[in-house]
Design a protein that fits this description.
Order of helices and strands: HHHEEHHHEEEHEEHHHEEEHEEHHH
Number of helices: 14
Oligomer: single chain
Number of strands: 12
Strand order of the largest sheet: 2-1-5-4-3
Shape: elongated
Structural class: alpha+beta
Length: 369
């Protein structure tokens, strides 16, 4: 089968690297010109037929003149497509191409043209195309050649990444926790607005500062040790530390550190989810102080006080009750309250428990066991 002039020029685009393809064509022209060498025609035909790059050409009437086999899978073309309007056959946008095609027929060429086409499943496909003129024996432009690279999959991946980035960005900015992304040298690479507020500055003025600027000197050794372990890919649980704001104020925070790695597992950044626990720590301190106060009140009370479970297992007795029973407090624990009641009083208490009545006051006689 002999190649047509159109097909010979079409193979100029059968490589994604146009310059490399041109060098190949020049080499074949030097060794065996297609017009005189049957072997050269065969080689050209093989390049054209087996190229993974979809190649086609159109005439001035915008009719499809030629295409290679790769076009069949991409555009669903058949032999009946030849001679038909190329826009309808390929599902391309006329408004996008009309002016470019006019300029190609005036002798111009265009590279890296982004095109959208209609796929067989009705979805959109994406191409990066090179358009250039095909000339006849008299040097007149007779056809416009399209050399295309289908980038639909790459575009879908790109769109997926953009969606994921949008979702991550929304979570990054809207979370109540402060999030810090730090380079391996310890300098802040990114942070959300909550992070900037926690440090007492703006995102712009804090980016690039080392995290160590905000570490309490008394905790520097501990924080540095944790940092190094994280960078060495040792999983670390959340930990508490003191953070020093730009205004010098100290606040208690809980940090959950993690390491961000690339696809090959190489460390890139350290990410820290940080939560202000100042109020929580203050509340815990108040509870501890209240507990100490009430424990002192109970321990020094003259009345005997005990605390039991729902089934009357003794959990706590104060010293006054222990003295009343004649035991040290630890000796009474884990016994049943009923062990220290007379038989009549045991029945009374059991009846109260069975009816689930609230016992406001109950007179009982305690006996030593």
């Amino acid at each position: 089968m002999t190649l047509t002039a159109a097909q010979i020029q079409l193979i100029q685009a059968c490589s994604k690297d146009a310059e490399a393809c041109q060098l190949l064509l020049d080499l074949f022209n030097q060794i065996a010109p297609a017009s005189t060498s049957e072997a050269g025609e065969t080689r050209y035909q093989q390049l054209f037929e087996h190229s993974p790059t979809p190649l086609f050409s159109i005439n001035r009437d915008r009719q499809l003149v030629s295409y290679n086999p790769a076009c069949r899978s991409v555009f669903r073309l058949t032999e009946a497509s030849l001679g038909q309007p190329y826009l309808t056959q390929l599902g391309l946008d006329e408004a996008q191409l009309d002016e470019l095609v006019n300029q190609v027929f005036n002798g111009q060429s265009f590279a890296k043209v982004n095109l959208v086409y209609r796929r067989g499943d009705g979805d959109s496909g994406y191409l990066i195309s090179r358009l250039y003129p095909l000339r006849d024996a008299q040097g007149q432009v007779c056809e416009c050649v399209f050399a295309n690279t289908d980038i639909t999959h790459l575009r879908q991946v790109e769109q997926s990444l953009q969606r994921n980035e949008f979702i991550y960005r929304a979570l990054f900015e809207q979370t109540r926790d402060a999030i810090f992304i730090t380079q391996l040298d310890g300098r802040y690479l990114a942070m959300n607005q909550r992070g900037a507020e926690l440090l007492g500055g703006t995102v712009e003025e804090l980016i690039g500062q080392p995290y160590t600027n905000f570490v309490d000197p008394d905790e520097s050794a501990i924080v540095t040790d944790i940092w190094q372990k994280v960078v060495q890919q040792t999983p670390m649980p959340p930990y508490e530390r003191t953070l020093i704001r730009l205004d010098g104020q100290k606040i208690k925070v809980e940090v959950a550190p993690s390491l961000i790695c690339d696809a090959n597992g190489q460390p890139l950044y350290v990410q820290g989810h940080t939560r202000d626990i100042t109020e929580r720590k203050r509340t815990e301190q108040i509870l501890r102080e209240n507990e100490a106060y009430f424990r002192a009140v109970i321990e020094t009370a003259q009345e005997g006080i005990w605390i039991t479970t729902a089934d009357l297992k003794i959990l706590y007795v104060n010293q006054s009750l222990a003295d009343l029973l004649g035991y040290a407090p630890p000796e009474v624990l884990d016994h049943s309250l009923l062990d220290y009641l007379g038989e009549v009083d045991r029945e009374t208490v059991n009846q109260q428990l069975e009816t689930r009545l609230s016992i406001r006051q109950l007179d009982v006689r305690i006996q030593q066991v």
